[in-house]
Specification:
Order of helices and strands: HHHHH
Number of strands: 0
Structural class: mainly alpha
Largest sheet: none
Distance between the termini: 63 Å
Number of helices: 5
């Protein structure tokens, strides 16, 4: 028990010693000068582009990946944005005005977009699944697709639970 207490005390001393304490000298009583905020020019509206993830390192693939372009990834991202908007409209219709027919119609529309999304990525997803199992190197576009697939899975569950596709 004494050893445990001494380890905790030594850890606390090391923590405080390495943290460095206050950066200002103790005798300094004058406040640090405040820099005047600079005005940033208003940014021009720009087209939102999907950030590309870093490629994954690994073994050389035995089969080449199906083509997957930045434009395709942008289309997939915009489809997911449409699905989010439809899902939000359905939730608002259901909770705000109790219009279940409108909510179900919006969820069904969102479900159709999700099916379209799945169709667009079926070949790349099959290759990516094989690449993950075999620990192959994957291009940056496929790592971005992996991120989008996480969003797809969450939205797919929410749409199906909300009555879409039924």
């Amino acid at each position: 028990m004494v050893i445990g207490i001494s380890v905790v005390v030594a850890g606390a001393i090391a923590f405080f010693a390495l943290s460095g304490g206050s950066k200002a000298p103790a005798s300094s009583k004058q406040p640090a000068p405040v820099a005047a905020p600079t005005q940033q020019p208003a940014a021009a509206p720009s087209v939102s582009t999907l950030p590309i993830a870093a490629p994954k390192q690994g073994k050389a693939p035995t089969t080449p990946p199906p083509p997957l372009t930045q434009a395709t990834l942008q289309d997939l991202s915009s489809l997911l944005d449409k699905v989010k908007a439809l899902r939000n409209e359905a939730v608002t219709a259901r909770t705000g005005s109790s219009d279940t027919a409108k909510a179900k119609a919006k969820m069904n529309e969102a479900h159709k977009l999700l099916l379209q999304w799945e169709e667009m990525v079926s070949a790349p997803l099959r290759w990516q699944e094989m690449a993950q199992m075999e620990e192959w190197a994957q291009p940056a576009e496929y790592m971005t697709l992996e991120r989008l697939f996480g969003t797809f899975g969450r939205l797919n569950n929410e749409v199906r639970k909300g009555g879409g596709g039924g």
